[in-house]
Amino acid sequence: MKKFSKVDSVAMKCGIIIFLVVLLIIPINMITDLVAERQSSRKHVIQEISHKWGQSQTIIGPILSIPYIRSNKPYSNSVTEYAHFLPESLNIDSNLLPEKRSRNLHETVVYKSISTITGEFKFPDISGLGINLMNLDLKNAIISLGITDSKGISETIEFEANQQKLQFRPGLSNSDVLSSGVHTPLTIEKDKDIKFSIKSVIRGSEFIHFVPIGKETNVKINSSWSSPSFEGSFLPSQRKISDKGFEANWKVLNLNRNYPQKWLGKQFNIATSSFGVRLFIEANIYQQTTRSVKYAFLFILLTFTAFFFCEILYKRQIHPIQYLLIGLSIVIFYTLLLSLSEYISFDIAYWVSTTAIVGIITLYASAILKSKQMALAICTVLSHLYGFLFVLLQLEDMALLLGSFGLFLALAASMYLSKDVDWYKLSDHIKPPIDPTQNDVSTEDESKK
Question: What is the pLDDT of residue 417?
Fold first, then answer.
């Protein structure tokens, strides 16, 4: 029997294992940086495609702005400012035509929005604004339509007011309400309402938002995209999602917002009430890989614990270098997962990587422990660990609950396996891995003696 030396003592072995676990944090952090670098590269590609095609769009309008004369008493000079009026009713019907664009392994989604906007402006009511109707310049009124990225306008915007066709001009006449978009002059006839219709084809990327500026706003969005993410200040009142696409409807009243139907100058930031839909690309591989790397420290610790119990329960010796090689193989799992998931689906990449790493560790365990039974036990432990991690990645909302429960089970198993271990007598004997060939030779030698 080979007696324990100081290096082979249980306390020393535990210290070495803990040191190796801490040491392996360095390559784990390097993998985390690698994932962040790949994700940053993806964002750069998305920004480049969006810049050329059209950025994420927020459509605001139309808004009626009327110039008025404000006198500065006791001075004689006067200033021209704008009174802004929102429509009485606003109806938006938008059809999104999505397209996937990819470059250098990275994929994003762009769209073309074919929208029809209809509604009605009441003749401007200036009561409560503190201005005189005589000071309003009704002949030089402005209709403005806010568009986040004007590069996305792919066709001429058709605009009709009281069945009169008007032409939008680039830019805005003032920046009181909107920061970018188009405008057109409009002459308002006294005591006459304005019924309008706007037809547009606008390109954008990732998401499209609308702002509920009507006293009653009704928005309908439909698309062939099957994985929408509804976002913003308001969720749809009705929605249908299937493999063929989605359809969503919103109804928003002016009472649901924190700004009125009319005001003077720069008073409100109405874009904060926007809502809409994001064309979500499911299973972002970098987010899922980052989440899986967060469990790397725990996986290494649990795997080392399994091998340590093999030493304790079956009286085998495992060298620190062998522990280090096992830990590095677990670290390599994440590089395999990241690289494979850029070419194939994340789920398939996960199980291919799992099979490769569990397989190589199992074969290595069989070689160093000289026992197929113990190697099979290690394989079972690792298979359950990676299977459990896969479930955690799928159930994001319940990850904390399931993770806590899993740690509890791991601790309970460790306590059960060690309940009969006499830790004070472990320093007596631990055998090195048994080689059956050497055992046969030693037996023959003893019989000869």
Answer: 62
- Neighbouring residues of 278: CB distance < 8 A, sequence distance ≥ 6: 206, 207, 228, 229, 230, 231
pLDDT of residue 202: 92
Residue 143 zone, left/alpha/beta (φ > 0; ψ -120 to 50; rest):
beta
Residues 112-124 have pLDDT tens digits of 999 999 999 998 8
Rounded to whole angstroms, the Cα distance separating 318 from 309 reads: 11
Please tell me whether residue 207 adopts helix, strand or coil conformation.
strand
39-47's contacts with Cβ under 8 Å and 24+ in sequence apart are: 39/286, 39/287, 39/290, 41/104, 41/106, 42/106, 42/286, 45/103, 45/104, 45/106, 45/108, 46/106, 46/108, 46/205, 46/206
A 10 A CB-CB count for 275 gives 21
Give yes or no for a contact between 135 and 68, defined as CB atoms under 8 angstroms apart: yes
Q: What is the spatial distance between Cα 166 and Cα 275, in angstroms, rounded to a whole number?
A: 28
- The bridge status of strand 275-279 relative to strand 228-232 is antiparallel
Q: With helix as H, strand as E and coil as C, how does 254-321 read?
A: HHHCCCCCEEECCCCCHHHHCEEEEECCCCCHHHHHHHHHCCHHHHHHHHHHHHHHHHHHHCCCCCHH
Q: What is the pLDDT of residue 1?
A: 38
Q: Which residue has the tokens 């509604």?
A: 119
pLDDT value, residue 447: 46
Residue 418: the pLDDT is: 61
In the chain, which stretches have pLDDT less than 50? Answer: 1-7, 75-76, 283, 428-431, 438-449
pLDDT at 403: 59
| The residue type at 116 | T
C-alpha closest to that of 66 among 242, 189, 162, 171: 189
- Residue 282, token pair as written in the block: 């499911």
3-state secondary structure (DSSP) of residue 367: helix
Angle at the Cα of 296 from the Cα atoms of 291 and 298, rounded to 5 degrees:
110
The tokens describing 426, both together, are 């472990």
* CA distances for 116 relative to 64, 119, 197, angstroms: 18, 10, 7
pLDDT (0 to 100) of residue 317: 78
d(CA 182, CA 336): 50
- Sign of CA pseudo-dihedral 150, 152, 156, 159: negative
